[in-house]
Automatic annotation (TrEMBL):
This is Gas8 protein. InterPro entries: GAS8 (IPR039308). Keywords: Coiled coil. One of its GO terms (molecular function) is small GTPase binding. The keyword Ribonucleoprotein does not apply. One of its GO terms (biological process) is cell motility. The keyword Flavoprotein does not apply. One of its GO terms (cellular component) is Golgi apparatus. Residues 1-20 are annotated as: Disordered. Residues 66-97 form a coiled coil.
Length: 161
């Protein structure tokens, strides 16, 4: 097999007119028209390349901003978790302190109650001892009084006799 022929538009005809039958002015006009079209195509290509570059730059900036925003969100979430953990640890610590203080309070209250009960018992015992002593003293004083009355009565009898 031989080489394949190039397919596509041949430059032998322009707008259905054979280029060999065109005049020099027509060819120059056609050439000028093609150059203008080529320049317009080049400008469009440059414009679209600039637009593509702008879009790519915008895309990269936006993607970078999105990555930064996601990182900021992750940091905030981590910070929130750390604060939550810290708060829970503080609450646990305060609960332990309260528990310890309640235990100390109960211990102090029990000790104070015991001390007061002992003091009350001692006071009651002292009071009972004093009361017994006073009753005993009262009994002795009555005996003394009776003896004195009897002595007075006896003296009065002796005087009468």
């Amino acid at each position: 097999m031989g080489p394949k022929k190039a397919k596509g538009k041949t430059m032998d005809s322009v707008d259905g007119v054979d280029t060999s039958k065109m005049s020099r002015e027509q060819l120059e006009l056609y050439s000028h028209k093609i150059l203008e079209e080529m320049e317009r195509e080049r400008e469009e290509r440059n414009f679209f390349q600039l637009e593509r570059d702008k879009l790519r730059t915008f895309w990269e900036i936006t993607r970078h901003q999105l990555d930064e925003a996601r990182a900021a969100v992750r940091n905030k979430e981590r910070e929130k978790e750390e604060l939550t953990e810290k708060h829970e640890a503080e609450i646990k610590l305060y609960k332990q302190k309260i528990k310890h203080l309640m235990y100390e309070h109960e211990t102090n209250l029990s000790e104070t109650k015991a001390e007061h009960m002992v003091a009350l018992k001692i006071s009651q015992d002292n009071h009972n001892d004093e009361e017994k002593q006073l009753i005993k003293d009262k009994g002795e004083l009555r005996k003394i009084q009776k003896n004195q009355e009897l002595n007075c009565i006896n003296q009065i009898r002796d005087i009468k006799l």
